[in-house]
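REQUEST ID: PR-0412
SUBMITTED BY: lab tech R.K.
PRIORITY: routine
TASK: structure prediction, single protein chain
INPUT:
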Amino acid sequence: MGPASAMSVLAALLDRSLTQMAEASTDVRRFDREAIRAASDVWDNSLFPLFWAASASGIGERERRATTVLEWMADFGEHRRRWMTEQAAIAGHDLDSLLPPAGPYTPGRDYRGHVMTPQCRLTRRNVDDLVPDYDLATASLRHLVVERAGTRLTAYLQLVVDRMFAVEEGPPAPPALLNVWLEDVTDAVLDLPGTPGVMLDVGAREIGVLLGRGGRLRAAGGEYRMDDRSWHLSAAGRRADAATPPPTGRPDRPRQPPGGELGADARAAALLLRYIMWELRSVRYAARADHVPVLRLCQAFSGAGAAILAAGSQRGARRRETAFRDLIRAWAGRAGPDLARWFAAVLGEHAGRPDIIEMPPAPQRTPPSRADSAPGSGTPSQAALVMAAWTAAHTDNRTEHPATAQLQLALPPRTPGNDSAPWRLRTVGCTGPDAFRLRTAAFRGPGPLVQVGAPTTARSLGLHQGALYVAAGAG
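STATUS: complete
OUTPUT:
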């Protein structure tokens, strides 16, 4: 890696994000929802600073601004800085040469001045610190997700745990929740709802989460974080409080994003791209994932970082504005008529610029094909499991929530025999599942999808000889 240009690194990070998201969605049988969410989330507040840096009138000022933006982005924590460093290296840049050394981690404080819970690696030492404060033997599972992340499996668990320490007098404190993230899951055996009790078996090379009688997850690594507003009263919280600088009277907040005024066309381009990132980030909600055209959006905006740098590098404000306007039109042309109509609506409603993209005509409606309405045409014979989630019935903020099950499936093309057509993503769910059984083998790829019952009556769904089995009385 040669000497890094701050502006080149900033543009490359945007291009790497789009590449990552495209790779995560190219084949939905290996859909990586978290990679898409994480890459798009980087740009929530970073796009306008990027355009501000790219629009500087000279190379020196552009570099100064880009360095400021990179330092601000890296200040969002260890995970963000590590992602930036890794992606810059893939693009051939040494980001560390542009950033000050990372400071030691210290817990922040919330608006009450109480020390906030850190996110910790699942190590033997950290678990030993956790056990005296929270009773895992009586813990119950509230939420579980086992999900494909490309060629790997991940898992997320939310456990309700009893505190072993006294809390403040007054209204009852909300239950303490232990959030656990597992990486590279190698084994899953789950029959839900199960019996209470959790054990964290942390070894040098493997982590085991044992749930009740017979339930288990094994993984290569993981992290956890307590969601407990009373954590500062625990033994671990008191130790952290003593080692954390005293409250300043204001809650810890990230610095405001750097930036300044943009030209009308540069602002329109930044706003459109931010809306695209928001749309991509909405896959964080599983029910939205099969409605977001991730691959098409990433293809339409491919190379956006380099293109923004080229447009901003034009001499003179008028030339820069013309270049940004042409860039928006190029994105719309690559996206196709249906997405271009959406882009035009976003620019008209939120940027006050309905003049940039000529609104493509709406397609004529055609009567549905008889083949589409043929009996059984909507029931695929095969599926590949992408995600399986279960949530227990619970009360949250005095609102009762029923038990639910949710599945994300990759389904074959609608046209039989068209092997070259891409598979499609479908999210389905039910309320009040009577049974939820999951084994690791359920994720081994496409297999016969077995459905029993009618959509409005008792129904069950199975995959890979019962490795996945979900049944619900309400269909």
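NOTES: Residues 92 and 381 are 45 Å apart (CA to CA).
REVIEWED BY: pending
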